[in-house]
Amino acid sequence: MRFAIQVHPGYPVPQNGLLRTRLNVRIFAFLFFLSVSAVLAQAPDDLICAGDQLAADFKFPEALAEYEQAYKADTSNCTALWKIAETHINLGEEADKILQKQHYYSAEKWARKAVTLCPEEPNAHFFLAVSSGLIALFEGGKMKINRSKVIQSEAEKTVALDPRHDGAYHVLGRWHREVANLSWFLKAAAKVIYGGVPPGASNEAAVANLRQAIDIRPNWINHHLQLGLTYMKMKKWAEAHDCFEVALELPYIDHQDQEHKEKAKKLLGEVNDLGVFRNRK
User: Fold this and answer.
1) For residue 208, which of 182, 181, 235, 175 has the smallest C-alpha distance?
2) Is the pLDDT of residue 11 over 50?
C-alpha cells in the first residue's frame, strides 16, 4: 500500500527516502505499542498458567521465569508473588547447600511481599512459614527460636484463612514434634537466654495436625512419612510401621517423593528390627 503524504505549504520538502523512513518508524512504534498493550493485558494469567504447567513437570527454573514475568506485568498479582516464593523453595530443595540457602532467603523475601500485599491470601502466610522453617536449618541460637515463633504464627494464620490447607497442618505437626522433643538442656538454655521456646507443643498435637493433613490430602507421601516419624518419637512402633507402609504404596506426586520413599523404606526396616508386631498383641 502506498501512502499519500501531504506537506504543508511553505515547509521544506524532505527527500522521499527520509519521509518513508520516518513514516515507517512511526507505524512500527504504534504497532509495537498496541502489541505490548495487548500482551500486558493478558500476560499475568497466561504466564502463571504456563508456569504451573512447567512446575507440574518439575521444570522449576522455567516456571520461575514465567512467574517473574507475570509479576513484572502486574506487581499487584498475589498469585505470582506466592508462586515465586514456592518455586524458590522447590529449587532450594534440589540445590547444593550454597544455592539452597540463597533460594530459601529469596523465598522468604517474596513470601513477605505477598503477606504485605495480600494479607488475606493463605498461601502467602504458608510459604512464609515454610521458608522460615527452612532458613532456620542454617541458623542457630536466638534466630532459630525467633523463627520457630514465626513458623507457628504463620501456619496458624494459614489455617485460619483456609481450614482445608493440608500443608499448614503438616507444618504445624512438624513444629509441635520438633519443639516438644527439644532436650531439657536446650529448653532451659532457651528460657534463660532467649525468653523460652513457644509454649504448648506436644507429640499428641503433632499427631492430630498430621492426621488432619492426611484427611485433607491422603495421597501426599510426606504427610504419612512425618506422621510415622512422630509415632517413632512416641515409641508407637505399630502405628509408625503402618504409616511407612502407606508411604511406600502411594504413587509419586512431588519432586521429592523418591527421597521420601527411600526414607520411609529405611525407617520401616528400623521399626521391623524393633519387633513392631509384638505391640499388636
Assistant:
1) 175
2) no
Q: Does any domain span residue 150?
A: no
User: Looking at the domain assignment, is residue 259 inside a domain?
Assistant: yes
**Percentage of the chain with pLDDT > 70?**
79
Which residue in this structure is represented by grid cell 491422603? 218
Distance CA 117, CA 93 (A): 26
- The domain tally of the chain equals 1
In a domain, 142, yes or no: no
Answer with the residue of higher pLDDT: 27 or 237. 237
* Structural domain of 250: 218-281
Among 264, 89, 55, which Cα is nearest to 171's?
89
- What DSSP string describes 31-50? HHHHHHHHHHHHHHHHHHHH
Instruction: Yes or no: say if 170 and 223 are a contact pair by the CB < 8 Å rule.
Output: yes
